Fold this sequence. Notes:
The protein starts with 8 loop residues before the first strand and ends in a 7-residue tail after the last helix. 27% of the residues lie in helices and 23% in strands. By secondary structure, the protein is of the alpha+beta class. The chain has a single domain, classed as 2-Layer Sandwich (Heat Shock Protein 90). The protein has a 5-stranded antiparallel beta sheet with strand order 1-2-3-5-4. The chain has helices spanning 20-26, 35-53, 108-116, 135-138, and strands at residues 9-14, 61-69, 72-78, 119-123, 128-134.
Amino acid sequence: MPSTxxxxxxxxxxxxLYLCPILDRLLSNVxxxxxxxxxxxxxxxxxxxxxxxxxxxxxxxxxVHYTVTAGQYWWIIVDQGKGFDAPCGCPEPNPExxxxxxxxxxxxxxxxxxxxxxxxxxxxxxxxxxxxxQARRWFGIPLVS
Length: 145
């Protein structure tokens, strides 16, 4: 996790599924040729926050904090919902599963997140999702400190 002294960008939006301008802004510092993969992952995470976290309540807000540091792209997505507990039917990532169609309906989003991001972690009782993509794994670039 980047230090708190690291410069973070942030944006907030009401619970809506119109995510194109939000995704464009969140991906503006990502090289163009890798944006499609991260767009899919971030869209999945934001849709989950809007639909499952905030229950599509337009009185509630989604906040996203983001930064790039030492070859790592970070996004923290915070909703105002009741929190997230993975249901029993949503297993931990399994390397033997090679397609989203091999997991149940509730596991598909988690499968996508774990395939795209190097770190997927919930905090604050499941209301805050931390996502990290490391350039060295993703781009084949050595991490510079």
